[in-house]
Design goal:
The chain has 324 residues and is α/β, with parallel strands linked by helices. 41% of the residues lie in helices and 22% in strands. The protein is built from eleven helices and eleven strands. The strands form two sheets. Strands 3, 4, 5, 6, 7, 8, 9, 10 and 11 form a nine-stranded mixed β-sheet that branches. A two-stranded antiparallel sheet has the order 1-2. Strand 1 and strand 2 form a beta hairpin. The longest helix is centred in the first third of the chain and has 26 residues. The chain is elongated, with a radius of gyration of 25 Å.
């Protein structure tokens, strides 16, 4: 029996994939070099050697910018998956002697910035002092896109049931989306409001009220739940500052629907009561990563720590739900 020699293909290396992926993400060789921590001449030289070895041009200059060729686009399309696998393998080897180094880049929505993220970073730093941690505040659509582009490793996001533009659906295809917990929505009312004495508030009772709306996604949720209750709310004030929302409600100029998580870092005025809705409205808190990223020890440690914060979250939720 005669064995047929395997066809010879140009040899690819992880560094070339990282560089091409960075050029696709950053839009220029200079920005790619900065993102990777290399000099611009070193990246240009590596790219030229890779093109000579492959026999294909990977990038071409267009004015002052650089555009990937068709071959470059092919490599960029596979770069994230392949470099993740390399990182996972290297990480597992490093993990044999414990997580003594590594990097994790986080993103999260504004409320998470003052609640979940400080606890997460504190726990991670205590358990893994050699781990380098960075954080970017971003609303869910931008955070999901940052994970897809490779500029972020782990994103903490949220979604509302029935959200027509939920970033965890079509735009998150090819990513891993895990649900962390349900964040109950509460109605913020002046203590003198007739509905303040109820254990749970029926939104139908609030049809004639003036409302204070939050971020665009929160505003969309308010419109959706009040529509289900049979009316379109009168929204006179809009702010994503929850201290301002509660201040306005305390002044008696409007009422609001606020997530429990927001109360963990916001002082609730004495004249405000917080009540869950009769239908138990809530939003879901998610964690988003690329597929296979959990094999990278730094990402795995982050996910494990996030899940271990459940008890602290429940305590925050109980404190918020029982407020006056």
């Amino acid at each position: 029996m005669t064995l047929t020699p395997a066809p010879q293909f140009p040899e690819l290396d992880a560094q070339t994939l990282r560089i091409v992926g960075a050029i696709a993400e950053q839009g220029s060789i200079t920005a790619a070099a900065e993102a990777l921590g290399y000099s611009q001449p070193a990246v240009s030289q590596h790219l030229r050697r890779a093109e000579q070895r492959l026999g294909l041009a990977l990038a071409e200059r267009v004015g002052r910018s650089v555009r990937l060729t068709e071959a470059g686009e092919v490599l960029a399309r596979h770069a994230r998956t392949i470099t993740n696998a390399f990182d996972a393998a290297a990480g597992e080897l490093a993990g044999l002697s414990g997580l003594r180094s590594g990097r994790v880049r986080l993103a999260g929505f504004p409320t998470a910035s003052s609640t979940v993220v400080p606890k997460l970073v504190k726990e991670l730093s205590a358990k893994h002092p050699g781990l380098s941690i960075s954080y970017l505040e971003a609303e869910p659509p931008e955070a999901v896109e940052a994970v897809r582009s490779g500029s972020v490793d782990v994103a903490i996001t949220f979604s509302y049931p029935g959200d027509r533009v939920d970033p965890h659906q079509e735009s998150a295809q090819g990513l891993t989306v895990d649900s962390l917990w349900q964040d109950e929505m509460l109605v913020a009312l002046p203590a003198a409001h007739p509905a303040a004495s109820h254990q749970r508030v029926r939104l139908e009772e609030l049809a004639g009220e003036t409302w204070i709306a939050g971020c665009p996604r929160c505003r969309g949720h308010l419109l959706q739940v009040t529509e289900s209750a049979g009316y379109t709310p009168t929204i006179a004030y809009e702010t994503d500052n929850f201290s301002a929302v509660l201040g306005m409600a305390d002044a008696g100029i409007g009422i609001a629907l606020v997530p429990t998580l927001a109360l963990a870092s916001t002082r609730v005025p004495e004249g405000i009561v917080l009540r869950p809705t009769a239908r138990g409205h809530s939003r879901t808190i998610h964690v988003v990563t690329t597929e296979g990223a959990s094999r990278v020890p730094a990402v795995a440690a982050t996910l494990e720590t996030l899940h271990s914060l459940d008890l602290a979250r429940l305590e925050l939720a109980e404190a918020g739900s029982s407020a006056r």
